[in-house]
Amino acid sequence: MTVANQPPHQPGGLLEGKVAVITGVGAAETIGAVTAAVFVKEGAQILAADISGAQKDTAIALGPAAVPFQADITREEDVEAMFAHALETFGRVDILVNVAGNPGGRRGDEVTVEEYESLTSVHLLGTLLTNKHAVRVMAPAGGGAIVNFSSAASFNTDRLISPAYSAAKAGINSLTKSYAVHYGPQNIRVNAVAPGFTMSKKNRGLPPEIEESLSNKAALARPGTPEEQADVAAFLASDRASFVTGVVIPVDGGWTAKLA
Ligand SMILES: NC(=O)c1ccc[n+]([C@@H]2O[C@H](COP(=O)([O-])OP(=O)(O)OC[C@H]3O[C@@H](n4cnc5c(N)ncnc54)[C@H](O)[C@@H]3O)[C@@H](O)[C@H]2O)c1
């Protein structure tokens, strides 16, 4: 399902009346864009943030419940401005979904310092800064929910996955637990989704042998869809998950259940 063919907002949805800041809302078929569409369908108003500029078209396609915002989550001034804009536009922030990430990285003997710095700054520093400023606006308002995007590669790894990416995603799991423990008393829940191989925009057009190999990693022997990631994020962000915090949920078709 794309942004365009998501059903419009359905009254009585899972996120009715909530305000969410969502990062990584890129072009159609990115997990962030589909998450934005699912949140609007479920009744949320959203600030759709990305570094690329693609958030503008994605927000326009979603209608008045979505407002675009340009932000680089590795820059603290951008992150502060993002939450200030959400407060100014909607009056409060109930939810942060931090989907933004960058792919790539080479094997252990070829990894470069630039690659390490780029992966750790977007995944680790970006998660730290977005979570920091989310709790700053949520705590005085009585609470909220944060969903970070980790990866199945944060638990264990594979020769197809770069060590720097796995390490950065493992750091997201740690930050998720820390923020959950530190801010639980302020009624802020913090969880993470750990996707397995998912057919988002960037994975369309992979060489067929790589696509097949990654698809077969899952017990279900297929890639996930962006909607399957977005639906779990929506549940974790919703009041239906009111006693769930500090967990990292694999959404991987059973990849991490396997011995190899
Ligand atoms: N697709 C998969 O198979 C898969 C598997 C495991 C984890 N994930 C994670 O899920 C998330 C989304 O995946 P995707 O496949 O849609 O990725 P993607 O690369 O297509 O989209 C990521 C988005 O983040 C944005 N972004 C990158 N750096 C940014 C920054 N500094 N500030 C703000 N925005 C920034 C990009 O512009 C892009 O729109 C990522 O965190 C990714 O690591 C994806």
CATH homologous superfamily (4th level) name: NAD(P)-binding Rossmann-like Domain
**Helix count, DSSP H or I runs of 4 or more residues:** 7
The CATH topology assignment is Rossmann fold
Report the count of strand segments: 7
> What is the overall pLDDT average?
95
Distance between the termini: 31 Å
Low-confidence stretches: none
Identify the CATH class: Alpha Beta
Strand-residue fraction?
5-15%
Rough outline? globular
| CA radius of gyration | 17 Å
Structural class: alpha/beta
Task: Give me the side-by-side strand order of the main sheet.
Answer: 3-2-1-4-5-6-7
Q: Compounds present? A: nicotinamide-adenine-dinucleotide
Count of discrete structural domains? 1
How does CATH name the architecture? Answer: 3-Layer(aba) Sandwich
| Helix content class | 25-40%
State the order of secondary-structure elements, H for helix, E for strand: EHEHEHEHEHEHHE
Largest beta-sheet details: 7 strands, parallel
